[in-house]
Amino acid sequence: MNFASDNTGPVHPRIMEAVMVANAGSAMPYGNDDTTRAARDAVRALFEAPEAAVEFVATGSVANALALACLVTPWDGVFCHRVAHVEEDECGAPEFYSNAKLILVDGDDAKMGPDALEAAILQAADRGVHGVQPGAVTLTNITERGTVYTLAEIRALTDVARAHGLPVHLDGARFANACAALGCSPAEMTWKAGIDAVSFGGTKNGCMGVEAVVLFDPARGRELELRRKRGGHLFSKHRFLSAQMGAYCEGGLWLEMAEAANARMAQLLQGLARVPGARMAHPAAANLGYLDLPRDAHERAFAAGAKYYTYPGDAMDVAQAGAHVRCRIVCDWSKPAEDVEALLAAWAG
Amino acid sequence: MNFASDNTGPVHPRIMEAVMVANAGSAMPYGNDDTTRAARDAVRALFEAPEAAVEFVATGSVANALALACLVTPWDGVFCHRVAHVEEDECGAPEFYSNAKLILVDGDDAKMGPDALEAAILQAADRGVHGVQPGAVTLTNITERGTVYTLAEIRALTDVARAHGLPVHLDGARFANACAALGCSPAEMTWKAGIDAVSFGGTKNGCMGVEAVVLFDPARGRELELRRKRGGHLFSKHRFLSAQMGAYCEGGLWLEMAEAANARMAQLLQGLARVPGARMAHPAAANLGYLDLPRDAHERAFAAGAKYYTYPGDAMDVAQAGAHVRCRIVCDWSKPAEDVEALLAAWAG
Amino acid sequence: MNFASDNTGPVHPRIMEAVMVANAGSAMPYGNDDTTRAARDAVRALFEAPEAAVEFVATGSVANALALACLVTPWDGVFCHRVAHVEEDECGAPEFYSNAKLILVDGDDAKMGPDALEAAILQAADRGVHGVQPGAVTLTNITERGTVYTLAEIRALTDVARAHGLPVHLDGARFANACAALGCSPAEMTWKAGIDAVSFGGTKNGCMGVEAVVLFDPARGRELELRRKRGGHLFSKHRFLSAQMGAYCEGGLWLEMAEAANARMAQLLQGLARVPGARMAHPAAANLGYLDLPRDAHERAFAAGAKYYTYPGDAMDVAQAGAHVRCRIVCDWSKPAEDVEALLAAWAG
Amino acid sequence: MNFASDNTGPVHPRIMEAVMVANAGSAMPYGNDDTTRAARDAVRALFEAPEAAVEFVATGSVANALALACLVTPWDGVFCHRVAHVEEDECGAPEFYSNAKLILVDGDDAKMGPDALEAAILQAADRGVHGVQPGAVTLTNITERGTVYTLAEIRALTDVARAHGLPVHLDGARFANACAALGCSPAEMTWKAGIDAVSFGGTKNGCMGVEAVVLFDPARGRELELRRKRGGHLFSKHRFLSAQMGAYCEGGLWLEMAEAANARMAQLLQGLARVPGARMAHPAAANLGYLDLPRDAHERAFAAGAKYYTYPGDAMDVAQAGAHVRCRIVCDWSKPAEDVEALLAAWAG
Lengths: 349, 349, 349, 349
Description:
In chain A, helix 7 links the parallel strand 4 and strand 5 (168-172). By secondary structure, the first copy, chain A, is an alpha/beta fold.
């Protein structure tokens, strides 16, 4: 009953198999190998973007940091939601790579609205040389609270950005879960909706550790390569990153795993009616949910061996909090339905 | 006959097996897992340094960059050999992470001597606030030209550094090959010889992609963790890095592979007598060798399908060069004796 | 009637005279001159801090940036008020010099309260390696809205910082105006109240362009010197910076000018009763005031040639705003009482 | 007899007068004042470059750092002579502002030759993504050893740079002295000879502290403004920088002072025949000279109160050196002929 994160789960057997296959014999290093060429093309095909610059890295933090760095200058501001991963969970990696400043935008359920975004842009633009310049926008889908931007909501934000000349990055650490939730294609959620750069996540969704940075403007590709190398992120035995991404794209595995993870969260939401006093803190639309649980329900689950994060702080703080405990539940592709049932049962008492 | 680099070779089966084993079930992320704890302890045991700070990353460039960044300030100079990997092959990663400046020291066969090092330190110290300050020394064993610093040579350099209050880093991308060549222990080549920080390489020696940063002063450990995270190098599914390093240390596999690789180079050196006009450009002591070959010998090998780098530039430049071609030959753990024989045969004609 | 800023005013004749005097003959460069030694000592005497590290720079932005950089690491957060100068008006200079991240704290009248500060520190500390680390606190006195922290309020903030191990910086671009308003000594407003580092401003208060960075821990002094040089802020003809600061400290000129400036604002506040519909937006306590004026009153003043900034945006935006216009009025040491009267008369109509 | 540097001399009375004049009344800050507009235009007129971006800063280090930063990316290399000021005397400021790496080129008398430059560019270009990319060239006129590049020599270097697509910066800390030596116009020594960016120095030549950054491509101007602000180098009372530069350009004062300084060095060279055993270390062509003096001659001068730097190290090291002492002599605009005679007399004994 480990619901702590989708990065606690195992690698999908087809991904692991691809890694084994890539290990046969010698291959040229630093991405100059056939496995890499094929995986890049697979990502381009998935995004219907045959010209896009595509490079692979091993963590989501650096995927975001590199993508943003390629969009801005060091005296720019990057607009993001107050609880964005780039703001809260990357220890300053976006600033380290881009030197830009994050400018926080509020909004319910971890989603920026177009009006709040525009107000923030206008305020920044008003300071002339004294303030950082409006530089780019980054949004996350699915969001850090488990909600999902619709295609129309994305378009509303990219329209605002475009009106002010700003490129838009999508943090897709859980990109597949968003596509699964929206029933849309990668292209529809990105360049067709006005997105310029994507962190296309594999790690949280059944890979060992691989993310693709996708820049729809191929002119930025050389900068991406050089920034990656300078950050120490160019793998010499690059084929092992690429093999993961290749298998991930192959035969819709990326979507299949996301659908499985989302289905487990849907099962949990359905079963929540059986847990008296439980309520959603944000409307969960994919594989990640925030709930407020009666304290005794939460304690029963932990006593039964469940693992998940509570807020604020960790489980040690529970005794100090109120009648409800805020819990974050994440399902990954591998989670069996029985685990969800067991969790619900523990909560229900 | 791929002798282009030791990073073209495959992962050792025992390493790959460990990765598979680590994939069973769930594990907490970001290094908070048992596989990681065990691998850290294995490295500490290998170095006879039970208190050392040990963290894992996926590339040698970032291992060097992080280790150096933990030793210096942004207004420091780092003394290294003119052809050091940190100077020539990391696209500025050491400067990106540390903000320090590399100060180049000359020396035959890619080895700094203590006098040249001291002269460079004194010259830098002479400029007061106008110049960068002497900050640290970094040396590479085995060197970028395939030569090996003896323990006495290392000690001579660390003595100079110590006399000027400078910590010393060892770039050990081919650490195991140096130990194998010297017949010494990891402790003897490092802290017992005055080294403060090590990049302990696994990638070039049969791993998929893992290096350990070892700081013998554990007080620097928290900074290392934070710098790694800020650089986007903290893996969420960290167990897969750790599993490689654990297996690498287990049962002397790290040394066994290095000895195999060195043995292939020794075989090649022995056979070189059969190649008229061939001569070593530097005295090869481990698994890496620079040779000057008669042009026709080189051309026969390439025609036979051999792969290795020539200098300056790549093979395309060969036609412009002189009667001899400078060739870099690298053997990895997996290279069969037959490949070496085939290469020698092609050269000999 | 130029009330746009205290940096629009002239240099005080005694400051200018000191610059002329310093020009006699040759002097050694880079601060190795008698004028500089004397000025450093004058600042130490003013702060009753005979051991403090004191260095001079030409702008307030770099004084803040250097002081903060000496207090934090690149992976730290610096807590400041949402409208702090370091956040809004320095185009990222604090981040450029320190690499740290500004963390914004709310509070009425541009003042942080201890509870809001502590909450922000706790939230940052809660994220472990994933977030930037609590690093330092910076506050501004007088504040960016013309209000003044009392000594008790400063102490309440430094107590919180101290409890969490954080040093505290005081942005004193208008330090003298705060001292004049509080009737306290520089020592009372700084180290006696728990402040570790000060930007002691001269430029806005009758100097040509000089600020002193004061670090009460002299152990940080060498780092300050090196950071200043590396930022290109070490003047070769340094005596001209120092001469200003020496004259500024001499005979209480710094305080005399601030009292004059504050008196003009007091005069304006008193006269405001004559302007129907005018009201203070924040309680002005020194030489800077934010007012909401009826539109017609504002328009009369501009028609009469008055200069001051309106918010948001500049005067061109006035037509789009509501019935009131928010105006920022700043008095410098040179402002004659007649100008204040003329402004009030224009407003009153 | 202070020949330590041209930055030990006083400000020219016409410069000081201009500063006094600028102090009359109020002026808008941050360069939005008439004095600044006029001074910018004066520099443009001097360079016959009516469209050039021109900004003023207070030190030569930041002028160089900002100019270079506007020409390169963080993963670039900047080619400069081994003893360039940017390499030896700016404590890493160029790297701090640009993040680029300096690549050192050898050459006699502190001058790069086109062949050495081209070899360095080719070597850097050869490393692909593994090395920093060729980014820009910077040269200094007059050089750090007092020699002067002819217009043909400058053109030879800019031709090489242009052939590789690299922009060229001229460090003109002693720009006026070079123009005076060559008898050429500022335009002839810069854009007409293929230079893209200039640090046009005033500080060493009779100003208080002002340098102009001149970018002949005006499209880079906004970046220059933002980088300057972010570095904390935008003066609020900007008119005092501008007044210096305006007076410096007015009526050929810049050239007049340089000619005076150069004449003193010519006088010294002529008189050197009277000093037995004295010899020039480099051919002095402007106001700066390196000489090797018999030890007793040097000691007589110091005993008589002369001030100048000796190498390596300072005068304290003299006793350890050989029969000759290497001395650096610099004349500024204010140096009377009598001082030069006195120095020669002391040397001659």
